[in-house]
Design goal:
The protein is an alpha/beta fold. The chain has one domain (about 1-465): Glycosidases (TIM Barrel), CATH 3.20.20.80. Helix content is about 40%, strand content about 15%. It is built from 16 helices and 19 strands. The strands form six sheets. The protein has an eight-stranded parallel β-barrel, surrounded by four helices. Strands 9-11-12 form a three-stranded mixed beta sheet, covered by helices on one side. Helix 7 runs parallel beside helix 9 (about 190-210), helix 8 (about 170-175) runs antiparallel to helix 9 and helix 13 (about 345-355) packs parallel to helix 15 (about 385-405). The N and C termini lie close together (about 5 Å). The structure holds 5-hydroxymethyl-3,4-dihydroxypiperidine. 5-hydroxymethyl-3,4-dihydroxypiperidine (IFM) binds near residues 167 and 365. 5-hydroxymethyl-3,4-dihydroxypiperidine binds near residues 167, 296, 365, 416 and 423. Pfam families: Glyco_hydro_1. InterPro entries: GH (IPR017853), Glyco_hydro_1 (IPR001360). Keywords: Glycosidase, Hydrolase. It comes from Kluyvera georgiana ATCC 51603.
Length: about 475
């Protein structure tokens, strides 16, 4: 038997987001998800949109009790810009929203659960997208900073952990390269501009936070995916280097190492994709300092050198590599055959330790997708049997434990997610929750993974034979 014990005061909980859980009722504005779903419901799995989802708006008290029941000491959600802010230009808040978020956060705190609050989880207000192009516009970076300043002023005295953006590269990929987020454009130069502007918005929000001299911490959550090669050839290694540069270092280096990779700037210039920037903006980003990093990890990236010509008429990172499926890999049969590679957790942790000053970080999302059928029905003991998920979570945590023993500065784990929630174009196709959500009744039903997590969180350790 081996026991894997974690450091004292380790954070255990789950991550979710406002647009995926709250429901759209009462918002003064629509987000791009509300409006896109209204315009093109057929793009969403079974046509289900974000209007009701988990109905957290009305059920938050019950939900906080459920968090407590499975041992959470922390929970991440996000404030919806389109809910909190009445006047998107001035940052004036909406009174109803202020009441809701205060009550929700207070309920967590009263139950010993530390709220970690994110400000942007892919949910641009529709009006800002239509009027200015969302983060295509520098003006919107100022509006984001106003929204952030309002949130800090209203809740900064009770929230200890703030996050500016969750997975900031995803709206760039989805909205400007690969067509899975609104505005569904395909334009490499615009993608680079949006990426830069998001970093600028992040830096402006951090600056507002520092100006208010609050006692909490502020960070950012990045989805980091190591790139593994098909073989050891120089060509494949170069392909992996490009993938790492474009998908990981593009955000990690400016936000943690305080520098834009020279090679990235050269590459973007080569493809006529360099964003418009000023010296002051670059210095604001590279001079900005985060207190902690969140890391989301689900699947490894496997690449090989290109063997077929690149045919797209706009730039994407795949100009420099092709994706590769490892014939010896393990795959999740319940999630598009996604590869399972727990060792990546160790590799991410050592990369942060060795190349990013061993900044304090936490595993902000890790999750195993299953569909309803594979999770199966409620068992006689009232629990849904998702044992597949537990075994995989344990394997990933063994790697995290090994990394911490080797010096990784990790302070917590949040699993994605608490209650099955709405997931963008996939809607409720894939389930991740500790609790199942019944879409008809809204009922929450515990899964075996939730009970496993309770024992883990309460004892701060787990044991394997
Ligand atoms: O649902 C998403 C979340 O919004 C961001 N990270 C990945 C999750 C699962 O796909």
């Amino acid at each position: 038997m081996t026991t894997y014990a974690f450091p004292n005061h380790f954070l255990w909980g789950a991550a979710a987001s406002g647009p995926q859980t709250e429901g759209a009722e009462g918002k003064p504005h629509r987000s791009i998800w509300d409006s896109w779903h209204a315009a093109q419901p057929e793009r969403f799995y079974r046509g289900i949109g974000p209007e009701t989802v988990c109905n957290t708006l009305h059920r938050y008290k019950e939900d906080v009790a459920l968090m407590k029941h499975i041992g959470f000491n922390s929970f991440r959600t996000s404030i919806q810009w389109s809910r909190l802010i009445d006047d998107l230009e001035t940052g004036e808040p909406n009174a109803e929203a202020v009441r809701f978020y205060n009550d929700y956060f207070d309920e967590m705190i009263a139950n010993g659960i530390e709220p970690m609050v994110n400000l942007y989880h892919f949910d641009m207000p529709e009006e800002l997208q239509n009027r200015y192009g969302g983060f295509e516009s520098k003006h919107v970076t100022d509006l984001f900073a106003r929204f952030a300043a309002t949130a800090f002023r209203l809740f900064g005295h009770k929230i200890k952990y703030w996050i500016t953006f969750n997975e900031p590269i995803v709206p760039v990929e989805g909205g400007y390269l690969y067509d899975f987020h609104y505005p569904c454009k395909k334009d490499g130069k615009l993608a680079a501009q949006v990426a830069f502007n998001i970093m600028l918005a992040h830096a402006k929000a951090v600056q507002c936070y520092r100006e208010q001299a609050l006692t909490g911490e502020i960070g950012v959550v990045l989805n980091l995916t190591p790139s593994y090669t098909r073989n050891d050839s120089a060509e494949d290694k170069k392909a992996a280097w490009y993938a790492d540069l474009l998908f990981n270092r593009s955000f990690l280096d400016p936000l943690v190492k305080h520098q834009f990779p020279k090679e990235l700037c050269e590459l973007l210039a080569l493809h006529q994709c360099l964003p418009e920037t000023t010296k002051e903006e670059v210095s604001l980003i590279t001079g900005s300092h985060i207190d902690f990093l969140g890391v989301n990890y689900y699947v490894p990236r496997r690449v090989q050198a290109r063997e077929t010509p690149y045919t797209l008429d706009y730039f994407t990172p795949e100009f420099y590599f092709e994706n590769y499926v490892d014939p010896n890999g393990r795959f999740n049969p319940y999630r598009d055959n996604n590869e399972i590679h727990p060792q990546a957790i160790y590799d991410i942790a050592t990369n942060i330790r060795d190349n990013y000053g061993n900044i304090k970080w936490y595993l902000a999302e890790i999750g195993i997708a299953m569909d309803l059928q594979s999770e199966g029905p409620v068992q006689a003991d009232g629990v849904i049997d998702d044992g597949f998920r537990i075994g995989l979570m344990e394997e990933h945590l063994v790697q995290l434990h090994r990394a911490i023993a080797d010096g990784a500065n990790c302070f917590g784990v949040h699993q994605w997610t608490f209650i099955d929630n709405w997931s963008w174009l996939n809607s409720f196709k894939r389930r991740y929750g500790f609790y199942r959500l019944d879409l008809e009744t809204g009922k929450r039903q515990i899964k075996r993974n939730g009970l496993w997590f309770k024992a883990l969180a309460q004892s701060n350790q787990f044991t394997l034979e």
